[in-house]
Design a protein that fits this description.
Elements lengths: L1 E2 L5 H4 L1 E2 L1 E6 L2 E5 L18 E4 L8 E4 L4 E5 L7 E7 L3 E8 L2 E7 L3 E7 L7
Antiparallel strand pairs: 1-2, 3-4, 4-5, 6-9, 7-8, 9-10, 10-11
Length: 123
């Protein structure tokens, strides 16, 4: 597993591990902390356990790299919705089709729709 702080992929990549414990639990361990992340959660001290509350069909988690990106009801520029994300928001990717990613955002409200892949970080 490779992890890095948004915007710092080349400078901050850390190779850690993710372990599937069972159908509802995963553990993550890193050999060192990301700058600042230790304020919230230590990943280098020992594996951190996460319990999965609800199954979801994501293929990836990405973050927004532009100041603002909108959701679209269809893969078309003329189908823009009012909902949008801002730079560094994380979004769960359900599927990708050419230049579009069908995505789910979990915030105060759950928002789903198509986002332009050019507005998201590259793997």
């Amino acid at each position: 597993m490779l992890t890095y702080y948004p915007q710092s992929k080349s400078e901050d990549t850390i190779s850690g591990f993710a372990e599937i414990v069972n159908d509802s639990t995963v553990k993550i361990k890193l050999p060192q902390e990301h700058g600042g992340c230790w304020n919230v959660q230590h990943f280098a001290d020992e594996p951190v356990k996460f319990d999965i509350e609800k199954k979801a069909d994501w293929t990836q988690v990405k973050y927004v790299t532009v100041e603002k990106t909108f959701f679209y009801s269809e893969k078309s520029n003329d189908k823009k919705l009012k909902a949008y994300l801002v730079k560094n928001n994380f979004v769960c990717i359900n599927k990708t089709e050419r230049d579009w990613a069908y995505s789910t955002y979990y915030g105060k409200e759950i928002v789903t729709g198509w986002i332009k892949t050019s507005d998201l970080n590259n793997p």
